[in-house]
Design a protein that fits this description.
It is a single chain. With 77 residues, this protein is mainly α. The protein contains 3 helices and 2 strands, in the order ββααα. The protein has a two-stranded antiparallel sheet with strand order 1-2. The mean pLDDT is 93.
């Protein structure tokens, strides 16, 4: 019997406690802006880092809505 595949969270919990739709594009945008600001990497690397972060989020928060801070922690790792 196979285990169910991990899926991305459907929602996130904003800083004010409100729920919002999960949007991996926002993660990619934030990573790309950080790479641009530091000059350390470009859009291709930002896309790769986003894929890695969303994979961790899918496994760590399967069936749960992470907070913005929890998402930031995963991205920083």
């Amino acid at each position: 019997m196979s285990t169910p595949a991990a899926t991305l969270p459907r929602d996130v919990i904003a800083r004010d406690g409100a729920r919002a739709a999960f949007d991996a594009g926002r993660i990619r945008s934030a990573i790309a802006r950080a790479g641009s600001a530091t000059g350390e990497f470009g859009a291709d690397e930002a896309q790769l880092l986003t894929a890695q972060a969303t994979k961790v989020l899918a496994h760590r928060f399967h069936g749960q809505a992470p907070t913005i801070e929890q998402i930031q922690d995963v991205v920083e790792q």
